[in-house]
Structures are given as structure tokens and as C-alpha cells.
Amino acid sequence: MTMDAEEAGYRKKVADFPGSPLTQFALGRYLLGKARFEEAIGPLEEANRLQADYAAAMVALGDAYAGAQRTDEARAAYLRAREVAVAQGHPSLADEIDDRLANL
Description:
Blueprint: H1 5-16, H2 21-33, H3 37-50, H4 55-67, H5 71-87, H6 91-102
């Protein structure tokens, strides 16, 4: 698969700032948006490893797992994301996660 300029930009940012959860998240979201679910998992797992309370990255990881038909891992990621969302006072995000869980 040929890499477009947008993907190349995300990958360059990851290479330049490998310890940044934001660059990992951005690349993962880009790949998720292209329905490249298996490829999105790596950067999203890394974003979660780098920042354990990054609820948006946890939700995106759940989406990548779900798209890759890895339902048990998707459920676990969504449940972690829901716990973080509630702890951080984001009830609307928790509701959004509940919808994703119901659709697994």
C-alpha cells in the first residue's frame, strides 16, 4: 500500500516525537479513519502506554480492536475508557462508550 502525504506526515511526527502520546494517537486515528484497523492498533496501544489516563486514545483503541474483530480486547479497552471518563467527570463520553459496548 502506498503511503499518502498525510500519512507520511503523521509517521514523521511519530518518528520525531516517539514519546508523545498525541502523535501516536493522531497516527492511530488516521489509520482508523482509513479502516486500517490492525495497523491502527499499534500506535493506539502505544498512546495508551505513554498516557494511561488518555480516555480518547482508549476509545480509539477499542474502535480499532472492534474493527479488527477482536471483540474481547475491544470490550476491555472500552471498559477502561469508561472508568477513566467517569473518574475525569466526562459523563457524555461514558454514555458514548456505553453505546459502543452495546453494539459489540
